[in-house]
Amino acid sequence: MSEKNKLMSLTDAVKKFVHDGDLISLGGFSATLCPMATVHEIIRQKIKHLHIAACSNGQAVDELIGGGCVERIEIAYGGNGRFAPTCLHFRKAIEQGSLKVEDYSNYQMTLRFMAGAMGVPFLPTYSSLGTDIVNKWGFGEEYRAQDERLPLKKLVIKDNPFNRTDKIDKLVLVPALQPDVTIIHAQKADALGNVSLKGLVYSDLEQVKASKNVIVTCEEIVETDELRCNPEYNQIISFQVSAVVEVPWGAYPTAVPSYYDYDPAFLLHFYPKVAKDSIEWQKYLDEYIVGVKDRQEFLQLIGTERLDSLRADAVCGYNPELKRR
Amino acid sequence: MSEKNKLMSLTDAVKKFVHDGDLISLGGFSATLCPMATVHEIIRQKIKHLHIAACSNGQAVDELIGGGCVERIEIAYGGNGRFAPTCLHFRKAIEQGSLKVEDYSNYQMTLRFMAGAMGVPFLPTYSSLGTDIVNKWGFGEEYRAQDERLPLKKLVIKDNPFNRTDKIDKLVLVPALQPDVTIIHAQKADALGNVSLKGLVYSDLEQVKASKNVIVTCEEIVETDELRCNPEYNQIISFQVSAVVEVPWGAYPTAVPSYYDYDPAFLLHFYPKVAKDSIEWQKYLDEYIVGVKDRQEFLQLIGTERLDSLRADAVCGYNPELKRR
Amino acid sequence: MSEYTLQEMMAIVAAREVQKAGVDVILCGTGISTLAAVAAKKITTPDVVIFFETGAIDVEFNQMPMSLSDPRVMHGAVRLAGLAEAFALIQNQITGKKTLGILGAAQIDIYGNLNSTVIGDYFNPKVRFSGSGGACDIGSVVGQSMAFMELGKRKFVDKLDYLTTPGYLDGPGAREKVGLIGGGPQLVITNKATFRFDDLTKKMYLDSYYPGFTPEAIQEEINFAIDLSRAVEAVPPTGHELEILRTQCDPERMVLK
Amino acid sequence: MSEYTLQEMMAIVAAREVQKAGVDVILCGTGISTLAAVAAKKITTPDVVIFFETGAIDVEFNQMPMSLSDPRVMHGAVRLAGLAEAFALIQNQITGKKTLGILGAAQIDIYGNLNSTVIGDYFNPKVRFSGSGGACDIGSVVGQSMAFMELGKRKFVDKLDYLTTPGYLDGPGAREKVGLIGGGPQLVITNKATFRFDDLTKKMYLDSYYPGFTPEAIQEEINFAIDLSRAVEAVPPTGHELEILRTQCDPERMVLK
């Protein structure tokens, strides 16, 4: 077996690569490809004071906040599509003042990861000129000055040095993010950390490339030779990845294109009920996350029948028969 | 048929979208995916004073220069791999002073197209600090000032405004390129301009997205529904493309992965001979380019047997039996 | 005349506007926004490309998506890109000018600026919403945009609690002055009326009111005074439009109520 | 002892250096550079990832490529990216530090700076070469690099006609002062000797000379004075190394002469 084998248990991966106070970036988008198994493991290991960076992650961010792991967040969208126009714990924590938030747009967060991935300190955009994203800083200058891990400025506005007209040409420079660890869930990976994602990839690739460490959970471990047959379908390379863990149903209750659909019963009916009530929420944490040993036990609580009902059609990649209301 | 059908003859596509003095960007890299059919058509139509922008295009750039179409060029690498460490007309034209050249690196040219594609006036990099790429400008400040189509500066060096250490942190900002027309050759496209490239794509996508107009020649026109089966294999979208032309063997003598290999007999033996001798070169132009009506007639001169010998193996995408010396 | 719901009216108004706008691409969100895009494609502008900021481009739906990342936007798309490419496509003015963005928000002001971030003080909010998502990006750079809003005094406000997405900011020349490159909003579609923006003042005016409503009743639901003088009664959906909307655009009735 | 060519010696020296460097990735060009990378993978460091600036990553060759864009680098690769991603991978110091770049040039100076652009005046050149390609990028940002050069007074020059690719510029601290982020060259491999750079002065010194050559003869082929005091005779290729090089790395003899 190669020295570069990165297979390990999820418990070990989180122990090794996620620490109190880390800057964590979460892959996936609203209710698809959220790295839920890893999120639950982080809650189970009682990791605290996390600094989260994400574009539009829904379910993963919300459970992590509800699990008491998050101190501050930089994000573009704390919602879950039509399942939750605003994520419930996200909303409650900000309204109560227990979560510090810095607002960017989706493109800006993507550019920040992209700058990190490219190894440059910033990238330029025209987005947000004249808005409160420029004017109001969730992390004030003083707060930033005191914390070396934050850029001194939320963003900077600069003139285009190539402008040869008398028209105004200003750009918003957004600062790079290089997270301590990025956590994603994928369809397939090999033991070395080569990863194949199918369907939309959101900003997962920029997040992975920007990060010091990367934990990949996946539906299936495959041989490297299988991946070599279709290099166009592989996006992440072994030397960008720190840990690989096979976790079937690892994104449940969110969707994994070609494997399973999201679970509307969970997202539309069960979750809002428990997330709105602190007693119910504590029960959920105790029973479904902290009270189980691992993902396998969690899935047993969900039940095979329920999981089976979500399996994706081989052609369209979701379950066209799914009851979605 | 859709209003958005972009199929036309190569003659019409070049007439409509390529004009004297245009800024043209050429897809492909050294001896692969060079848009040779379109290059020949440009020479045939005697289009002059072109301003070329490319990363590492080999054969296409060199024939275009040899054809007398090019006035100035911004480029990273004027070579053709082991076929021609330096392209012959490229070298001769610069040494004779008949071609103005501005040198960048491959990453810088890519970033310039990427900036154009992103719609921002520049992108930052650490590349070239302290080198003559920074210090020596092929297009001087005065020359630039006189031509509105050029950025006033080759590049600009700026401090990182997010730097919170006392370490020096300077970046090279390279100016965006938005070519009048980008010319690429692809494996497959549909009539609307959706394009599927297989194998490496170099900077073709950034070049396409940065451009006001795009001419795509391809080996095969396919139905849109075929492209919809594998969206991960499609890179260019209809609304980014101006003209689509089916031109089998359109990149010959350069390679098209999965279709045919490069032609070593042409590139290693025939071309250097004719390119080094001005009488031979004129004969080549007369006989193979200006003297033929279209691509079909050119291919007849090359001969079916020779073309057949280049056909790619279905699995590896090239011809493993090819005589390459 | 056919019976129709106000939601159906909104979708049809949007579909007609897409045709008028002459764009090649619709960049849309979920819910009524996706429904409007599909209605445009099925009814008024069959060649239009439906595009999501997640990177799904030229999507052909079999089922309505629950989010921008729903696998239902992936199957049958021509291209699956990522966010970086999706937003670059609209920031790039060559393609951005061919694109119409569809927006929505919690609050709108007279210049078409939108708030989808907070109610109350940003640093101590009464209600926290999801935040910009891609809305600020779209409003900043896209060639033109329209917004779906519910009418009401808490929605059409004098001053936004937070300016998430730029419309015309504080009036004529303001976008140019701060350096914004996109085209700004063209149309606001509500459940009772539509609004456009005056060429000179960039202020919202009543463009049309739906059958059964009056300009004066519309003004009652808006927290700032608007010009009612140009308003006409909107043309209700035709039977043909309704037929396609109901049977081909959302047969599962995921959005249509 | 086995018979071997100087070209074989160069490839083997490089393969050994890759192991010493402890890198995960080799970023290479064509010709001797690809051969060296393949030799490293087959002989010294089987886990190393071979990577081309065109974006072919973790390539497993069946045949030697004629250029960085040869379809032979695509088949069997783990990933096919583009130039933008390829260069970002090395500019990003998280992955850039894991990478060893292999370079080549027409001229080199005592600080390991390279010229692959012109001989003579840039604005009126005697000889024009291809230009940087990705060399300047690699030299600017990659964690460490090595260069293949032919020895000779026209190649090892006192002053470059054009500084295409940064080595240590004009000496200690110079890279930091201009803001370069990568690690600079570690080794120069020629047809007769290898050179390294002094930790303090950043000047090139003779590291080893191949059997059959002397330090003094090497100095004769260099246009500037170098430190010969640390030179040792290089260990020639073993029979095992040569066997693998000839039979597994380039059986078609596309590069090996």
TrEMBL record, chains C, D:
GO molecular function, one term: glutaconate CoA-transferase activity
SUPFAM superfamilies: NagB/RpiA/CoA transferase-like
Keywords from the named record: Transferase
The UniProt record lists the keyword Glycosyltransferase: no
Keyword Transferase set for record: yes
Pfam families for this protein: CoA_trans
E.C. number: 2.8.3.12
Stored PANTHER family: ACETATE COA-TRANSFERASE YDIF, CHOLESTEROL RING-CLEAVING HYDROLASE IPDB SUBUNIT
Protein name: Glutaconate CoA-transferase subunit B
